[in-house]
Design goal:
Blueprint: E1 5-6, E2 31-38, E3 42-50, H1 61-65, E4 68-70, E5 73-77, E6 83-86, H2 88-101, H3 109-122, E7 134-143, E8 155-165, E9 176-180, H4 198-213, E10 218-222, E11 230-233, E12 236-242, E13 245-248, H5 259-270, E14 275-277, H6 282-290, E15 294-301, E16 305-314, E17 317-320, H7 328-341, E18 352-354
Parallel strand pairs: 1-3, 9-10, 9-16, 13-14
Antiparallel strand pairs: 2-3, 2-8, 4-7, 5-6, 5-7, 6-18, 7-8, 10-11, 11-12, 12-13, 12-15, 15-16, 16-17
Helix pairs in contact: 2-3, 5-7
Bound molecules: pyridoxal-5'-phosphate and 2-OXO-4-methylpentanoic acid.
């Protein structure tokens, strides 16, 4: 790429020696991608440089008004050594939808993907080898203007950093425990829920802390208006299998349109399951549970992969789902999704991109 400047690090950091100890998002590689935006000039000065602190004015608008967006994706190491991405075009397309929601200028999606591939070629030795590990990719854009009035910024910084990571949930494939959040609201229709922007996650922290204090992994969010309909979990979309039918909340604007969600819907339909996207109330799930018809529940996400849900508390009702074991559909999906991502099975969808 002739409009991408590359400055290589003089000293390389040691790679993690024991990949069994990899946590999530703690270690960063030797290089990062940067690109600036200035009004009148557009996006410019794309570069790969040694990883390090960002030069940022204390008045930078992202720090005050959260004008920022981010993405989460992974690079996977196949058994034959190839480095693979899963539907990366979808992440950059979603980044632009998030940009639109918080008034950040659009990026060139194809250019961003090519720049990421260049960065990954430089950092390929950082992609871990152990099963279920990957190189987590975090693209993000922040408003960098030094200005304290509330308005869209005139300058931005687009950054991509990389982090060799293990599983996001310590439970791995063991079912997680959730309770239905009754007090706090994460987002509402018309808000920013459909965008991947930091404020949504800040809004979810207090509920998450309280959930951890009660020994729950996460909370299950209901819609913020009627507090009736299931939305999602902190970092994953949710699916319920009721009487053989797979149901996932429809995208009403307050839910993040997950790429794993979209892929799972397609894969499940390919396997012959009936999959419905519609509003699903917690009452309906509770009734299905009481009638013995709640077969399975699981979450989907880049970091979370397929995460079985074994226990949901709603008020006084405890729903123990599938005896707290991973269900058949969750297992099949997990095998197909991770099979594609790690290049273990052929890709009939054209979703996998080789670095
Ligand atoms: N919902 C939220 C709030 C998330 O942060 C994520 C993770 O990105 C997801 C759902 C799942 O989205 P994806 O499958 O694109 O990773
Ligand atoms: C992801 O799944 O990539 C996410 O962004 C989730 C999270 C770590 C916020």
């Amino acid at each position: 790429m002739n409009n991408l400047r590359i400055e290589l690090a003089k000293n390389l950091k040691p790679k993690p020696q024991d990949e069994t100890k990899l946590g999530f998002g703690d270690i960063f590689t030797d290089h990062m991608f940067l690109m600036d935006y200035d009004e009148g000039q557009g996006w410019h000065d794309a570069r790969i440089v040694p990883y390090g602190p960002l030069p940022l004015d204390p008045a930078a608008m992202a720090l005050h008004y959260s004008q920022e967006v981010f993405e989460g994706m992974k690079a996977y190491r196949a058994e034959d050594g190839r480095i693979l991405l899963f539907r990366p075009q979808e992440n950059f397309a979603r980044l632009n939808r998030s940009n639109d929601r918080v008034c950040i200028p659009q990026i060139d999606e194809e250019f961003a993907l090519q720049a990421l591939i260049e960065l990954l070629k430089i950092e390929k030795d950082w992609v871990p080898h152990l099963k279920d590990t990957s190189l987590y990719i975090r693209p993000f854009i922040i408003a960098s203007d030094a200005h304290l009035g509330v308005r869209p910024a005139n300058s931005y910084l687009f950054v991509i950093i990389l982090s060799p990571s293990g599983p996001y949930y310590k439970e791995g494939l063991n079912p997680v425990k959730l309770y239905v959040e009754n007090n706090y609201v994460r987002t509402v229709r018309g808000g920013t829920g459909m965008a991947k922007t930091g404020g949504n996650y800040a809004a979810s922290l207090k509920a998450q802390v309280e959930a951890h204090e009660q020994n729950y992994s996460q909370v299950l969010w209901l819609d913020g208006v009627e507090k009736k309909y299931i939305e999602e979990v902190g970092a994953m979309n949710v699916f319920f299998v009721i009487d053989g039918e797979v149901i996932t909340p429809e995208l009403v604007g307050s839910i993040l349109p997950g790429i794993t969600r979209k892929s799972c819907i397609e894969m499940l339909r390919g396997m012959g399951y009936k999959v419905t996207e519609r509003r699903l109330s917690i009452q309906e799930v509770a009734e299905a549970y009481k009638a013995g018809k709640l077969d399975e529940a699981f979450g989907t996400g880049t970091a979370a992969v397929i995460s079985p849900i074994g226990h949901i508390k709603w008020g006084d009702l405890i729903m123990d789902i599938n005896n707290n074991e991973i269900g058949d559909i969750s297992m099949k999906l997990y095998n197909e999704l991770t099979g594609l991502q790690w290049g273990r099975i052929p890709d009939p969808y054209g979703w996998v991109v080789e670095v």
